[in-house]
Design a protein that fits this description.
This protein has 409 residues and is α/β, with parallel strands linked by helices. It folds into two domains: 279 residues, Alkaline Phosphatase, subunit A (3-Layer(aba) Sandwich), CATH 3.40.720.10; 121 residues, Domain 2, Phosphonoacetate Hydrolase (Gyrase A, domain 2). The chain has 16 helices and 21 strands. The strands form seven sheets. A seven-stranded mixed sheet has the order 4-21-10-3-9-7-8, with helices on both faces. It has a four-stranded antiparallel sheet with strand order 15-16-18-17. A hairpin with a 4-residue loop joins strand 5 and strand 6.
């Protein structure tokens, strides 16, 4: 089969079954801890037989921009997804991204399916499935709505029967494990040759590296990676973002930026948009370390940015064009300015907009900024020296399909 060209990159059709896993929220510290404490024996073995390294994710380090980058092989400046939530300037409305309508280019998954490769996309969250499956003539379903999958809409029916258990609870570790178990069944039945398996970061939001809950979950993921390899698959594992503790002894370490700027520049000075916002708000209360700011009554951009930069916990403040250039984002979707919190700080709008009761006593752990940009990058086969040399040590998480299809020895 001829190579498949997607967004300027050429990909070989898979010579063997191939699975790419987006290990949502898997900060490198989970891998380091798991290797040191024997939690991850399969990944430990890949240090000799495959590739275990790190890469840089897309900023903002949120789910949608990074999953879109992984399946398109390009940054948001090309594919157009720069958050989970955005302000539509033309309509003057705030909107959540829940499908692929804003995707500006095709995906590797759709192109491979069109070329005749049996392709499947299985996600924990259905809103992500709707985005990633755009144009995909193949199997696509989520564990969140596994009980509703139909042949007409998802290319498969009776997912629960195939996996052998009922749809998992939305806020559970099993939401992710169900994805992996479904991928295993699809491989066992030769229903797919190329799989994208995207997990949930529920565990990582709630449990730090080394905690019993995190160790149990990561051990279960590692075991399933081993089973995929045992079935003959080339497996690539990457994350969409890392995860950091964003709490103080008294609670979440939050800068309520809209409130702070209203205090200095007057009520209604700006509108702060938190692009981490998604339907799974219990994870994080819509608090992350990257926000977009839009001027309303205040009109002095320089003064607003300077006042923001003086606040504790703020790592970077950039005007919209500068943020688009630095982070390879679509310029037309940027705010008037962008603000990033440091590794221990989240940024919100105003207190009444962020409900943290869902944390149920857990410390706030979140993502979005530069502190969560480094992610694991793991391949079950060794990568060719010439391939790695061509990357000059600058792997991106959206190189993972390139690595497993083109770079594996």
């Amino acid at each position: 089969m001829a190579d498949v060209v997607v967004n300027g990159r050429s990909y070989r059709a898979p010579e063997r079954p191939t699975a790419v896993i987006c290990f949502d929220g898997c900060d490198p510290e989970y891998i380091r801890h798991g290797l040191a404490d024997g939690i991850l024996p399969v990944i430990a073995g890949l240090r000799n037989t495959g590739f275990v390294g790190e890469a840089l994710a897309v900023v903002p380090t949120f789910t949608n921009p990074n999953n879109a980058s992984i399946v398109t092989g390009v940054p948001p400046a090309v594919h157009g997804i720069s958050g989970n939530y955005y302000l539509d300037r033309a309509a003057g409305e705030e909107r959540m991204i829940t499908d692929g309508a804003m995707l500006r280019c095709g995906t590797i998954l759709a192109a491979m399916a069109q070329a005749g490769v049996r392709t499947a996309a299985v996600t924990a969250k259905d809103k992500l499935r709707l985005m990633l499956a755009r144009g995909l003539d193949g199997i696509n379903f989520s564990s969140e709505k596994a009980d509703r999958a139909t042949l007409a809409d998802n290319g498969i029916a009776d997912v629960e029967g195939m996996v052998g258990r009922s749809r998992p609870e939305q806020y559970s570790a099993d939401l992710s494990l169900f994805v992996l178990d479904a991928g295993l069944k699809l491989l066992e039945r030769s229903m797919a040759r190329l799989l994208y398996l995207s997990l949930s970061d529920f565990v990582q939001h709630a449990h730090a590296p080394g905690s019993p809950e995190a160790d149990a979950f990561n051990r279960a993921v590692d075991e399933r990676i081993g089973r995929l390899i045992a079935l003959g698959a080339t497996v690539g594992v990457v994350a969409d973002h890392g995860m950091n503790d964003k709490s103080r002894a008294s609670g979440a370490n939050v800068v309520f930026l809209e409130e702070e700027l209203a205090r200095r520049f007057g009520a209604g000075a700006v509108r702060v948009i938190c692009p981490i916002t998604d339907p799974f708000v219990r994870h994080h209360g819509a608090l992350g370390s990257f926000v977009r700011v839009y001027m309303r009554k205040a009109t002095d951009l320089d003064a607003l940015m300077a006042a923001t930069a003086e606040l504790p916990g703020i790592e970077a403040v950039l005007d919209g064009p500068a943020a688009a250039r630095r982070f390879e984002l679509p310029p037309d979707l940027e705010g008037d300015f962008v603000v990033l919190g440091d590794a221990n700080t989240v940024i919100g709008a105003s207190p009444f907009e962020h409900d943290l009761s869902g944390l149920a006593g857990h410390r706030l752990r979140s993502h979005g900024g530069l502190g969560e940009q480094t992610v694991p990058f793991i391949v079950s086969r060794k990568l060719r020296p010439d391939y790695l040399a061509g990357k000059a040590g600058a792997l991106r998480n959206f190189d993972i399909f390139d690595a497993v299809l083109n770079g594996a020895a």
